[in-house]
Amino acid sequence: MREFVAVDHIAIAFDLPALKQQALMFDRIAIPQLQAFLAYEGEERKEANATLRWLQEAGIVFEPTLKSDAKISIDEYRDNRSLLVEQSQKLLAELLGFSIEELIEARGHKSKTARIKKKIDQIPEKVYEFVEGENVADHAYKLATYITRLISIELREVDGLQAVPLLPVDIAETDNDHDLKNSVIKIVLNSLPVPDDETSWEQIVEYRDDQDSKNKFLDLRNWMSEVARGELTPVEAEEQLEYLLSLFRRGMEIHRMKANTIVLESLVVTSADLARNLLTLRWGEIAKGFFSIRHRKIALLEGELTAQGSEVAYIIKARDVFSTPS
Prior knowledge:
This protein is α/β, with parallel strands linked by helices. The protein is built from 13 helices and 8 strands. Among the domains are: 75-142, no CATH class; 169-321, no CATH class. The protein has helices spanning 16-25, 34-38, 46-57, 75-96, 100-105, 110-121, 123-132, 135-157, 201-209, 211-228, 234-254, 272-280, 285-290; strands at 4-8, 28-30, 61-62, 162-166, 182-195, 259-269, 291-298, 311-318. The strands form 2 sheets. It has a 4-stranded parallel beta sheet with strand order 3-2-1-4, with helices on both faces. A 4-stranded antiparallel beta sheet has the order 7-5-6-8. Strand 1, helix 1 (16-25) and strand 2 form a beta-alpha-beta unit. The chain is globular and about 75 Å long.
C-alpha cells in the first residue's frame, strides 16, 4: 500500500500539537522549507526545533523539494508552476517598485534606466511600507498554497506516494486564480478524537507502530469516499461512522492517551449530480451530530480529479472545548 502523506501548508506546519494529530492520521508529514525554519535558532524556537529534528530522525516529518526537472505532463501542474512564478514576480514588484519586465526593457535605454535607479534608491522606504501593509502576507500566503499543491502533485506523480495537501481553513474555496471550478463534497466530521497537547511523542510513536491503530484512519478515509460516491444509505453512514469513532476512542484508551476532539474537513471529488442527490437524502439527527455534508465548487488540479471519492485536501480545526473524559 502506498504511503499516505500530508503536505503541510506553511501556515500550519509548525504547530506542534497539530503535528501530533497529523502523526496519527498520516504515515509521514512533508513540511516545505523545514530546514530554513530550523536554521533560526532563537530562544523561543528552541523546544520546537528540537522536536522537529527528533521527528526528522524518527522519519515522521521530512522536507520535500520542488523538482525543477520533474517530468509531469498534466496541464494543472504547469499552470500551478506558472502561478508560482507569477506570484513571485508580484512579490518582487511590490517590494522593489518595478517588475522584471521593466528591468529588462530598461537595458540600453537611458531614461528608463534612470527611473529604475531612482526606484532602487527608494527600496528601503518601499520595504518598510510593504512589510507594514497586508500585501506581503497575501502574496506569501498564495505562494505557500501553490508550493503545497505542487509538491503534493510531484509526490503523487513522481514518487508514487498518496500525498494530500493539508490547508488552512477554507483556503481552497477562496482560490480565485483558477477560472474552472469543479464539484466536491465537503464532509465535516464534528468530533474526531485526537491526542491532547500533553500526550508524549513516545506515546504517539507507540500508537503508530500498532498496525491496528494505523488502520483506523484508513477505515475513516474509506468511509468518506463511500459517502461521496453515494454507496451508503444515511442509516449505514451513521452506524459506520459511530462505530469508527468509537474505535478511535478505544485505540487511544489502549495506548493511554487523553483525547481532545477536532473538526476534520475533507474535500472529496464527486459529480454535481451526485452532490445534489447526497444533499437531498434524509440524514438523521445522529448523523447531524457527528458530521455534515456540503456541496462546494472549487478549483481542482487534474491530478485531483482521477476518481470520484478521492480526497483533495484536508482542513483541521480546533474545537472550542477540548478535553473529553478519559
